[in-house]
Design goal:
heterodimer; A: about 250 residues; alpha+beta; 2 domains; three-stranded antiparallel beta sheet; two-stranded antiparallel sheet; elongated; B: about 280 residues; alpha/beta; TIM Barrel; eight-stranded parallel barrel; 9 helices; 13 strands; globular
Chain lengths: ~250, ~280
């Protein structure tokens, strides 16, 4: 028999969390109840990780139902368990998992709905940055003007109506017919900490993508009239720096 | 040295932010460290506001201090950053492990109590206290199994940990009752052996009951009111120690704030009785 070292005991305990039988070396007042007692730990691990995933992807859970979600989470957790105790970063791999998970293969928008939900979580926890004053744009030289955007800003694009599906699962959402994708959106966090999911037309998306990549306003405006993009950014306090002059 | 007030505290849930800012019933709030390890946003804004209003206890669930492998240095660095930023009145963690190898298991898993595990955990507590530059509290676990390899009682293990590292203890009275019921021992005998002098905070929480053929198996659910036998044990501990910072923990199926406040009020009444009795006796 192996010497019962601390490390060997934790190897065996951890392995048993994913198997049927408890590890050797456990005791209880009635030895035939050890398996039932050990299953409390197995259930806690599964349940707590499943709920952590569900809290990050609530619309995915609504779309497939709690029972299916729990079964699906079990597969994902076994394949791609969290590797950090900071669970607020966990779930980055879940959208790609959904893209490849055969039982939801008939719902090709699932991965993108999950990407949108994950982006909202990133926006919620993104670093703080103060918005510029609304009149800051007025004084700048438009030809060389570039914008610094809030760390929470992300641009979302899906060939599927993933944004519309997400919207239809929000509390109080009006019922309306989905139109075919692609869907575009800006995700960010307003100064009052509310999470913005703003639908975009394709042209405004292109302007914002150019601005986010560091293009000058003049160059970004070649894609489309930038008024809608600038109005959206200013309204939600998402411009945090004004830069003029040639980038160094 | 920073310490929590000898009053009642509540675990913080974001939906109760406005209530927590308004109430005078509690003297401190407790948060789980790992929920405040994002870069910014609402969690940090709320924690900063709460700390302007109340004392704060940061309660870690992520250090896996009982891991046979070394501590996660990246996590310890995150913890130091959080504690340097907020200067909480208390930092506590668990006598348990949650990670071994790469995977994070997100549960407080049990340990055998041996000379080997004692040496490992003492080294980990030393490392945490040196890194954070402060004394930490370690919480007694609720367990469902024990280990054939254990050679030391839990209370002797904790006593020796305190002696070797100078750490304090977080006495979870519900965990004592849950473990005592599950392993069929007398919770009063456990508390008689517990190093009460080292207690820096008390936790009270609810549990659920399952029935096994041999008798009850209590589950530390943090999703119910504190049970009557736990209130009784709590009052008995305070009769020996005097008033101590006391947290009501309710992490699952979180009820309306009024329900939490009723639990805190019940703890306050016991704390006030103890203080009065001790004043009368003096």
């Amino acid at each position: 028999m192996q010497p019962d070292t601390h490390a060997a005991q934790q190897d065996a305990f951890q392995a048993a969390l994913w198997r049927q039988d408890p590890p050797a070396g456990l005791t209880a007042p009635a030895m035939d109840e050890v398996a039932q007692r050990f299953s409390v730990y197995r259930n806690n691990v599964q349940h707590s990780l499943t709920r952590a995933l569900a809290s990050r992807f609530p619309v995915i859970e609504q779309l497939v139902g709690a029972t299916f979600f729990t079964a699906m989470a079990r597969v994902h957790i076994a394949q791609d368990p969290p590797t950090s105790p900071v669970l607020l970063n966990w779930g980055a791999g879940f959208p790609a998992f959904l893209d490849g998970f055969a039982p939801v293969g008939h719902l090709p928008f699932m991965g993108d709905v999950a990407r949108l939900e994950y982006a909202r979580g990133l926006a919620y926890h993104a670093a703080d940055a103060a918005p510029v004053a609304p009149d800051a744009l007025a004084v700048a030289d438009l030809e060389t003007l570039r914008l610094g955007l809030h760390p929470s800003v992300q641009l979302f694009k899906s060939p599927h109506p993933a944004l519309q599906i997400w919207q239809s699962h929000q509390t109080g959402a009006a019922r309306h017919m989905l139109t075919a994708g692609p869907d575009h959106a800006l995700i960010g966090r307003a100064p009052d900490f509310s999470i913005i999911v703003a639908p975009l037309d394709q042209g405004t998306f292109a302007v914002l993508a150019a601005l986010a990549a560091g293009a000058t306003l003049e160059s970004a405006a070649k894609h489309n009239d930038p008024t809608a993009a600038l109005t959206l950014l200013l309204r939600h306090g998402l411009i945090t720096a004004i830069k003029t002059g040639v980038p160094t | 040295m920073l310490s929590l007030p000898r009053t009642t505290g509540l675990g913080f849930k974001p939906q109760h932010f406005a209530d927590m800012m308004a109430t005078d019933t509690i003297g401190f709030v407790e948060v789980h460290a790992e929920n405040y390890m994002g870069d910014g946003g609402a969690p940090h804004a709320m924690l900063a506001a709460l700390h302007d209003r109340h004392a704060v206890s940061i309660h870690g669930v992520g250090l896996s201090i009982g891991s046979a492998g070394g501590l996660d240095r990246a996590h310890l660095a995150r913890l130091r950053k959080l504690i340097d930023r907020y200067q909480p009145e208390s930092f506590s963690e668990h006598l348990a492990w949650s990670s071994h190898g790469a995977a994070w298991l997100n549960d407080l898993l049990p340990l055998p109590y041996t000379g080997e595990t004692l040496a490992t955990i003492c080294a980990h507590v030393d490392q945490v206290q040196e890194t954070l530059g402060r004394r930490m509290l370690l919480e007694n676990p609720a367990t469902y199994v024990t280990f054939a390899s254990s050679t030391i009682s839990e209370t002797d293990f904790l006593t020796e940990l305190v002696r070797r590292t100078g750490c304090g203890l977080l006495l979870d009275v519900n965990n004592v009752f849950v473990s005592a019921t599950n392993h069929r021992f007398d919770p009063r005998a456990y508390l008689a052996d517990f190093p009460l002098f080292a207690i820096g905070e008390i936790h009270l929480a609810g549990h659920e009951t399952e029935e096994l053929p041999s008798g009850p198996l209590l589950i530390d659910s943090h999703g119910a009111p504190v049970a009557d036998p736990v209130w009784t044990l709590y009052a008995e501990v305070l009769a020996r120690t005097g008033a101590l910072p006391t947290l009501i923990e309710w992490d699952n199926d979180v009820p309306d704030f009024a329900v939490l406040l009723a639990e805190a009020t019940r703890a306050n009444a016991i704390l006030h009785d103890i203080e009065r009795q001790r004043t009368d006796a003096a």
